[in-house]
Every structure is written in structure tokens, then in C-alpha cells.
Amino acid sequence: MRLLIALGGNALLQRGEPLTAFNQITNIRRATAQIARLAERNKLLITHGNGPQVGLLALQAAASGLGEKAAKKQGLPSSPPMPLDILGAESAGMIGYLLEQELANVLPAQQAITTVLTRVVVDADDPAFKHPTKPIGPLYSKSEAKRLAARHHWSITIDGTGYRPYRRVVASPKPQRLVDSKPILWLFEHNAIVIAVGGGGIPVVVSADGKTYSGIEAVIDKDLSSVLLAKDAAVDLLMIATDVDAVYTDWNTPHAQPLREVPVTHLRTMQFPAGSMGPKIEAACQFVEQTDSPAVIGSLQQIEAMLEGCAGTRVIPAHNR
Q1: Which of 9, 51, 137, 200 is catalytic?
Q2: With b meaning 16 or more CB within 10 Å and e meaning fewer, what string describes 220-250?
Q3: Cβ neighbours, 10 Å, residue 177
Q4: Does residue 146 carry a catalytic annotation?
Q5: Is the dihedral of CA 172, 177, 180, 181 positive or negative?
Q6: Among residues 127, 123, 157, which one has the least CA distance to residue 142?
Q7: Could you give the CA distance from residue 112 to residue 120 in angstroms, rounded to a whole number?
Q8: Taking burial as the number of CB atoms within 10 A of a residue's CB, which of 199, 254, 275, 305 is the most buried?
Q9: What is the pLDDT of residues 96-114, one digit of tens each?
Q10: In the chain, which ranges are continuous DSSP H helix?
Q11: What is the DSSP letter of 294?
Q12: Could you write out the DSSP letters of every residue in 206-218?
């Protein structure tokens, strides 16, 4: 089968876990051990999130950037923080490298594995730029969030529970098309495992004459960008791997129940949290509606069972019911 596996940021770094190289490698090693189970008999595209990673890079950039006065005092050039599109490219390269390396360690030596940094076109006038919703970076306590928001002019939202429920949010415009689909598809058709659309892709806008691209400050939703790639590659199944085993109704209540197989028309009538499961549901629905092929959402640890239809939530075309 032709598969696209979309790895959630929390599948690569557990919620609340410190963002260290050791923790990332440990989690990616677990992820690649699961993915390798599907590589022998299937053609694979892999996409991944970068919310924790790009958020930390942005925090580090803000902390290390020297203002003009401080730089002059130290006899150094001023160094403003890098914009989010460049930080997104950095994180996509970093995670791609780790995925490549760990996959190569468990797959046959002749298996080609490569990462393609992927530019994704967005609309500069997308309303998302005025209403940031995409959580990035670590979780903060209320006092930490208030202090950082004041210092860096960040937008903050609640994205968890417990002592540190707050997180930075940034603009997340809708992806329109992939700039780099040709090299990705060429590699895929020549049996390479391709890691692409890292972090949802690098957000770019097109000039008025349609001839040039420019980066823009944003982070694109990985699952929605994955739908574009899945359609371009004509995959048979979109697999959205996250840190929960299925989509649940009445989540976080005593009445929570997993959905196992659900027609896309029925799923469209249900409500899910916009900041967590909502984008995954939307991506799955879009893929099924636009391709007439199924999508499945579930735990990375159950990826073989997800492929076989024995785990996760499988979203199917309405006429399959």
C-alpha cells in the first residue's frame, strides 16, 4: 500500500517532557521501530509535527538575540531573533535527520531514506494572522506565561491541565499547495521513504506576479499540509499517529467512548476541541472527502493494528457504510 504516516509532535516528545536531545532521540527511536514494521511491504511517506521544537527554538532565539544597545556595548553586531519560517526549517531539518538516522539503523542498508524541506504556500491575508491559534513550545505556569507574554509580546492560551497549562500560540494559516511536491513524488515513486512537510512545511507567500516566494511568520498545521501531500501522492491510507489510541466522544469525562469506524458524514456532525483533536479530525475528513480513501487516527504504538483496521478511529467514505 501507499501510506502517509503523519507523526504528531507529541508522538515524538511526550507532553510535559523536557525538550532534550536524549528525550527526542529516545522517542524517535520508539517511533521508527513502529514505522519500520510497515516499511517492508508498503511505500511510505512520513510527515511530522514540530510544535515543541520550533517553540523552544523561538524561545532560545528571543533569549539569545542581542538588542542594538546591548550589542553595541559588547562590540558585536545586533542579532534580532530569527523569524518563524526559518526556525521551522531548522526544526524540520533537525527532526528529519533524527528520523532518517534511526530508520536507517533498523531497516536494510539498501533502503533509501531522505528528508525534503517543504515550502507550503499560504495566503498573506489569511484571517489566522490576526487570530493566532497554533500552540508551540513548552507549557508554562500562569505567572511564567504572563511574564513571557509581556516580555516577548506573545499570545498565550490554555493547552493543558495541572500546574503548567499555558502555552504560546502563533498564526496558523491554511496551507494552499506544496511548492516542492515534484522532488518528493519523484523520490517516492523510486521507492525511497520520504520525510517531508516537516512541521506542516515552511510557510511562504507568492509575489503578485506569481514568480517569487517569500517566507512569512507562521506555523502551519501538519495534518492539513499532510492532506495536500497525501492527495498529490495518491496514497491509499492517511495514518495520523498521535499520543491517544482513538478519537473519543465526551473526552475527559466518565462517559468517554472511543470511535472505531465512522463515516465522514457522521464525524462532520460532531464537535471536537479546536486546539488538539480538532485539526486531526478536519484533516481526516478532508482527505476522505477529497479522495474517497480512508484515514485512521490513533496511537503510534498500535500502528500495525491501525493499518489492519483493528485499532484507532477509521474514517471512511459515507457510501462504504
Answers
A1: 9
A2: bbbbbbbbbbbbbbebebbbbbbebbbbbee
A3: 13
A4: no
A5: positive
A6: 157
A7: 24
A8: 199
A9: 999 999 999 999 999 999 9
A10: 9-12, 21-39, 51-64, 68-73, 84-106, 142-152, 181-189, 222-232, 264-267, 277-291, 303-308
A11: -
A12: E-TTSS-EEE-S-
Cα 229 to chain center, whole Å? 13
Q: Which CATH number fits domain 2-53+83-122+172-235: 3.20.20.70, 3.40.50.300, 1.10.1760.20, 3.40.1160.10?
A: 3.40.1160.10
What's the pTM? Answer: 0.88
DSSP assignment of 130-151: TS--EEEEEEE-HHHHHHHHHH
**Residue 10: active-site member:** yes
Determine which one of 222, 231, 298, 312 is catalytic: 222
Whether 134 is catalytic: yes
Q: Which of 27, 51, 134, 199 is catalytic?
A: 134
Within 8 A by CB and 6+ apart from 125, the residues are none
Per-domain residue ranges of the chain: 2-53+83-122+172-235
Query: Is-catalytic flag, 43?
Result: no
The three grid cell numbers given for residue 98, joined into one nine-digit string: 533524527
